[in-house]
Model the fold of this input.
Amino acid sequence: MRFQYSEWDEDLIRRLLAQRDLLRLFNYLLLQTNGDVDEALRWMKYLQEQGVLSTDIDLKDFEKKLKDDRIIHQKGDRLELTPKGEKQIRQASLDQVFQSLKSDAQGNHPIQREGSGSVEPLPERRPFAFGDSANDIDFNESFTNAMRRAGSDEWSLTEPDLSVRQTEAATSCATVLLLDISHSMILYGEDRITPAKQVAMAFAEMILTRYPKDSLNVVVFGDDAAEIKVEDLAYVGVGPYHTNTQAGLRMARQLLLHRKYHNKQIFMITDGKPSVIRRSNGQLYKNPIGLDPMIVNRTLDEAVICRKKKITITTFMVTSDPYLQQFVRKLTELNHGRAYFTPPDRLGGYIFWDFIRNSRRRLR
Done:
């Protein structure tokens, strides 16, 4: 192949970099505006008026490019994301999260307990050893080894010629991602919901593209719990809700019990204590002050039920309040699960590291 080199076009490179940075900013604003394209573009214009964005940037041209790339489209008098645009946000979130991880968190890690799963061949080969399964022998390479040793005229296959495929166990898993959308996720001047949504979208995209044999459901919880589609994550917003952790765990458990997987887990992202439950008569019982014994006990009961159904709960607590951490530790103890206490900007690292670490195990 012949390449033709031309003069370095610094202006072109600058424009390409500007477009990439603009897209990154646009994606972030979409998460903050719950997928409202028009509002995100208005914010970009405002940032340009305030001098944050250079006046050399043509936002109209950027909008046109988004339309030409079919990331957004006109629907009536509004601009909306296309399915390609929704996927683009998830992929961008995945790229950004992985950039923040250490290189060893992107590979395969040992799992703490063995689960059922499929055995997948790796590209590496090694010499045959006593006890290896005949199914793992690479006969093409083994015959090549024999011919290389004895020549093509007269040869025989011996044990030293045998080459075996390295294998890896991939533990297929059913996961429910449980996302807190109560009002506390934006209280005290800290935006916790935007990074939580970004990580949730990245996590969903990773499972869809890299672990296609796994299953994923997404559940949001406030006063009640509701299942949403992965495509709807960009449009999720915090509401004037309390925190019904019990309802979230119960719905997650019910979804997982319908999955025919040996390994089942709940990943819960929350920042607050449970502050509401729904009584048997349908009425909400709320107590936002302290840890109400009735609410706490009902929630802990759900953690025990999940443990009995062999469903592990991993809680990612985006707060440093020792009072709330005590509750999470109790929930984790009763479920035999895991808990991480992390600031919002490090949430992605904890979730991805935990999932990948518990997804793969090298067999031989």
